[in-house]
C-alpha cells in the first residue's frame, strides 16, 4: 500500500496554514501570518511547498492596504480525488469526489441477500472497481477510500464488528480493500461518517458541537465535539437506536424492549400501519406518499414517530447538549410530518428554555450525506494532525 503518500502535510505549521486556507480562503500570506501568529518567512516557505505539491494554488489579487495587491491562496480542490463508499444494507454506493466534496462519478451495486462476509467483500470490491474504471486520475492523485458501514466498527483496525441488518460480523474491510486497491482505507460507522460530512460540508457555520442522526432501517448518531468525532470508550458512541424509551414496548431485534428504533425506523412505521389494519403490507415510503396525498391516519402515524424521536433527542440534549441536531436517512424525507412533532416534543420536554430551542433540521446533503461523510474520513486524515 502507498503508506505515507501525504506525509508532506504532517507538520504542525503546514496543518495550521492548510486549514486556515481551507476555512478562510481566498486568503493572503500576510493575513495567514497575522491570524496564526506564524512568522511571514515560515508562512511563505510552507505555502511554497504546498503549492509545489499542488494542494494549494494562487488565485486572484486581493485588496491593497497601501502597497501592491496581495496574491490570494485557495485549496486546489481538483488536485486530488477520494473514493467514498456507503456500504449497505441493500446497496453498495460508491463515488469519486474532489476535495470540495463535488461528486465526479458514482456507481451502485445491489446486494443479493442473504449474504456472507466473502460475498459482501466481493460486492464492495466490484463497486469500487466500477467507480474507478475509466477515471482520468492517476493513481498517485487518489488519496484513499472512505467506507461508511452500518453497525459497530473497530475504527483502528477497520473491521466491521457487527452489521446487524446484514447479519454479519468481523468483516476485515480495511485489510481486504487495501490489499485489493493499494490505497489507504478508512472505515467508520455510517452515522458517525455522516456527522463528519455534515460538519465539513453542511454549511452549519462555526459550531462547537453537533449531533447528526441517521434514521432509515436503523437509527444511529454521530457526535461532534470541538470539531472532532466522538467514538466513546468501546467505539459504540452514537448507537441511540437502542436507547429504551418505553419499558413495556415492542421487543427490539437487540432483545430489549421499547428501543427508539422500534418507533421511528422505516420498518417500524410499516409495522404500525399493518398493526392498525392496513389491507396490504406497505413500505414506509408508500406510507409517506399516501400521507402527503391526504391520508390522515398515515400522517398521524408519522407524527407519532416524530414524537418518539423527540423523546429520544430530548434525552440526548440533556446528556450532551449539542448546539445543533441534523437528521438524515430515508425517514427524514418525511420531515413535513416528523420535524414539527420533534420540535414540539423537545420544546415541551427540555429542562431549560435554551435547551428547548435546540436547532433541529434535516440535512441539505440529501441522499449523499453518508457518501460525503465517507470521503470526509480521508479529508480529516489529510488536513488535520493526529
UniProtKB/TrEMBL annotation:
User: Which PROSITE patterns does the UniProt record give?
Assistant: ROK
- One Pfam match, given by its short name, reads ROK
Going by the UniProt record, its keywords in alphabetical order are: Carbohydrate metabolism, DNA-binding, Xylose metabolism
Q: Does the keyword Cell inner membrane apply?
A: no
- Respond yes or no to whether keyword DNA-binding is given for this record: yes
Briefly, what is this protein's role? Transcriptional repressor of xylose-utilizing enzymes.
Family that this chain belongs to: Belongs to the ROK (NagC/XylR) family.
What's the protein called, per UniProt?
ROK family transcriptional regulator
For this protein's source organism, the top of the classification is:
Bacteria, Bacillati, Bacillota, Bacilli, Bacillales
Amino acid at each position: 500500500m502507498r503508506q505515507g503518500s501525504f506525509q508532506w502535510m504532517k507538520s504542525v505549521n503546514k496543518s495550521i496554514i492548510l486549514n486556515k486556507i481551507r476555512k478562510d480562503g481566498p486568503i493572503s500570506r500576510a493575513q495567514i501570518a497575522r491570524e496564526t501568529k506564524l512568522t511571514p518567512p515560515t508562512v511563505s516557505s510552507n505555502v511554497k511547498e504546498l503549492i509545489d505539491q499542488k494542494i494549494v494554488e494562487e488565485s486572484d489579487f486581493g485588496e491593497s492596504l497601501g502597497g501592491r495587491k496581495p496574491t490570494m491562496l485557495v485549496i486546489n480542490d481538483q488536485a486530488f480525488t477520494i473514493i467514498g463508499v456507503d456500504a449497505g444494507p441493500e446497496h453498495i454506493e460508491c463515488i469519486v469526489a474532489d476535495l470540495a466534496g463535488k461528486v465526479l462519478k458514482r456507481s451502485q451495486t445491489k446486494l443479493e441477500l442473504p449474504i456472507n462476509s466473502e460475498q459482501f467483500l466481493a460486492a464492495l470490491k466490484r463497486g469500487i472497481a466500477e467507480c474507478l474504471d475509466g477515471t482520468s486520475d492517476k493513481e498517485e492523485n487518489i488519496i484513499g477510500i472512505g467506507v461508511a458501514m452500518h453497525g459497530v466498527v473497530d475504527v483502528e483496525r477497520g473491521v466491521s464488528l457487527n452489521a446487524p441488518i446484514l447479519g454479519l460480523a468481523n468483516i476485515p474491510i480495511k485489510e481486504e480493500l487495501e490489499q485489493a486497491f493499494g490505497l489507504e482505507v478508512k472505515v467508520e460507522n455510517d452515522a458517525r461518517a455522516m456527522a463528519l460530512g455534515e460538519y465539513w460540508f453542511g454549511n452549519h457555520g462555526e459550531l462547537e458541537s453537533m449531533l447528526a442522526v441517521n434514521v432509515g432501517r436503523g437509527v444511529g448518531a454521530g457526535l461532534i465535539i470541538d470539531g472532532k468525532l466522538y467514538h466513546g470508550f468501546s467505539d459504540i458512541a452514537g448507537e441511540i437506536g437502542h436507547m429504551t424509551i418505553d419499558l413495556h414496548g415492542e421487543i427490539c431485534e437487540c432483545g430489549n424492549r421499547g428501543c427508539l428504533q422500534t418507533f421511528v425506523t422505516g420498518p417500524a412505521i410499516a409495522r404500525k400501519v399493518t398493526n392498525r389494519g392496513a389491507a396490504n403490507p406497505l413500505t414506509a415510503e408508500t406510507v409517506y406518499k399516501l400521507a402527503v396525498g391526504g391520508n390522515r391516519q398515515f400522517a398521524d402515524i408519522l407524527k407519532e414517530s416524530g414524537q418518539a424521536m423527540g423523546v429520544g433527542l430530548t434525552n440526548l440534549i440533556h446528556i450532551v447538549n449539542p448546539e445543533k441536531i441534523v437528521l438524515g436517512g430515508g425517514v427524514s424525507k418525511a420531515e413535513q410530518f416528523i420535524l414539527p412533532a420533534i420540535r414540539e416534543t423537545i420544546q415541551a420536554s427540555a429542562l431549560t428554555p435554551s435547551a428547548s430551542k435546540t436547532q433541529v433540521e434535516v440535512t441539505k446533503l440529501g441522499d449523499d450525506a453518508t457518501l460525503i461523510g465517507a470521503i470526509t474520513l480521508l479529508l480529516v486524515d489529510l488536513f488535520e494532525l493526529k
